[in-house]
Amino acid sequence: MTDPHEHELRVLNPATEEVVATVPAASEEDVAAAVARAARAQRTWAALAPADRARLLRRFADVVDAHTEELAGLEVREAGHTLGNARWEAGNARDLLLYAAGGAERLLGSQIPAPGGWNVTFQEPLGVIGVIAPWNFPMPIAAWGSFPALAAGNAVVLKPAETTPLTALRLAELALEAGLPEHVFQAVPGYGATAGRALVDHPDIAKIVFTGSTRTGREVMERCARLVKPVTLELGGKSPNIVFADADLEAALDPFSFLDNSGQDCCARTRILVHEPVFEAAREFLAGALADVVVGDPADEKTRMGPLISRQQLDRVRSYVPDDAPALRGTAPDGPGFWFPPTVLTGERPDGPAATEEIFGPVAVLLPFTDEQDAVRLANGTPYGLSGSIWTRDVGRALRVSQAVQAGNLSVNSHSSVRYWTPFGGFKQSGLGRELGPDALTAFTRTKNVFISTEGPAQ
Ligand code: NAD
User: Could you tell me the distance, in angstroms and rounded to a whole number, from the CA of residue 136 to the centre of ligand 1?
Assistant: First the structure.
């Protein structure tokens, strides 16, 4: 990646460090021009009958589907995702388009009776939405912010992360190919400090959907506050994996609960909390499981874990794992590329940095707990509250612990976090607002009530 004063983004393949593409970086003026084009296009888009918008979005889904291999290939090259994951991501974008298209047809207002008239309540589109995406899941997160907004009649200006602009640019081209009106969905790659801020500060951006680090999210929220601009924040995580003694240990300790996407996953279960009676068994199981993880070329179908996104991210992960730290370790290639082995730290304090801060790499901590209360206390012992898993065969305990853990997305006897048809978002410093699910479109509307008098003229 180049420094922020340059006018281009150099996209590196994180598995090889080769330059994959060079993309112009948007200036503040470029962002303003994109917003002006979007504002004009949005009026035509919003005026379409919902069924016509839905038809175009379904066609967009078909075009995405036809380009699955191409989109997946881009995600492999620019983000280092394994091919299997990247194909799933293209499929997720397609499925969300279909889901959002259905929502467009069901976005209704209401009618509330009143003496002497009627209240008619409308759900109006907001206008132009600014979507700011991170590098860890470039395609799905661009989709989650953008597609429900489009379905509700908004235009979208999407700013992808500096390191991963390619799938966003291609999705915007595919939207045109599918017949969406020009400028309704634009991708504007650029640096956060210029293009990102320009989008947040622009008075004609009606709402910001920001996904990224909690540090940047705070700044985005402050800037939105100056304009009283609504904002959705999808931020960091440090999610617990709570494993009780009666659990199916092999399923509960699946290392991909924290290694998926090389651990660069906001929902990664990076705090493995294990009931004391099975703690030693868990340690043994994890040691074997890490040794079996195939780390390497993400384009190879057999690979289960690829590289980290950048040298900067590699340095960050290394800073949490000194060479002499007590740990279970797998293996990783030496380089070129940004590789780090699957790692479980075994000598950490529950309130120490490695156990409470988001590392965003293939690193988890293993901690014992004594009983249910202790598990909940440990689970809630970070500023984050995004996800978590609870493993037990005791239904009562599963329900009690799910109620006590402060997180927006929990799973019982599963590590699944995201389904496009259920709401997703964080508690505490993991975020604000929800994406996906049945209310995804409403989040991109404003409610207007019009009272219509039925009184006749005074006789
Ligand atoms: P980041 O905060 O550095 O950047 C995210 C985006 O914000 C990028 O597009 C960047 O260019 C832009 N940006 C940077 N500074 C900005 C500013 N001042 N104003 C406006 N935009 C700015 O985050 P990242 O390192 O790209 O992503 C990793 C983080 O994202 C992790 O913390 C991860 O947990 C989080 N994340 C959260 C979710 C979720 O749904 N909760 C999903 C994925 C990732």
Answer: 9
Active-site position among 89, 234, 348, 435: 234
Mutating to test ligand 1, I would choose from 2, 136, 418 the residue with most ligand atoms within 8 A of its C-beta, which is: 136
Q: Per residue in 269-293, pLDDT tens?
A: 999 999 999 999 999 999 999 999 9
Cα–Cα distance for residue pair 111/116, rounded to 1 Å: 14
Rounded to the nearest whole angstrom, what is the distance from the C-alpha of residue 183 to the centroid of ligand 1? 24
User: What is the separation of C-alpha 56 from the centre of its chain, rounded to a whole number of angstroms?
Assistant: 25
How would you classify the pairing of strands 240-243 and 19-24?
unpaired
Separation of 192 CA from ligand 1 center, angstroms? 9
Greatest Cα pair distance in the chain: 92
- What mean pLDDT do residues 20-28 have? 97
What percent of the chain lies above the pLDDT cut of 90?
A: 97
Shared fold status for 8-235+430-449 and 240-412: no
| Ligand 1, residues at Cβ distance < 6 Å | 132-137, 141, 159, 161-162, 192-193, 196-197, 200, 211-213, 216, 219-220, 234-237, 266, 358, 360, 386, 426, 430-431
409-437 pLDDT, tens digit per residue, is 999 999 998 999 999 999 999 999 999 99
Query: Which pLDDT does position 35 carry in this prediction?
Result: 98
244 exposure class (CB count in 10 Å sphere: 0-12, 13-18, 19+): buried
| Domain 8-235+430-449 CATH class label | alpha beta
User: Spelled out in words, what is the top-level CATH class assigned to the domain 240-412?
Assistant: alpha beta
Q: Is the pLDDT of residue 442 over 80?
A: yes
pTM: 0.96
Kindly state the tokens that stand for 147: 């597609």
Q: Judge whether 234 counts as a catalytic residue.
A: yes
What are the extents of the domains in the chain? 8-235+430-449, 240-412
Instruction: Name the residue of 266, 382, 409 whose CB sits within 8 Å of the most ligand 1 atoms, as the mutation to test its pocket.
Output: 266
Ligand 1 atom 26: the closest Cα is on which residue?
134
Nearest CA to ligand 1 atom 37: 235
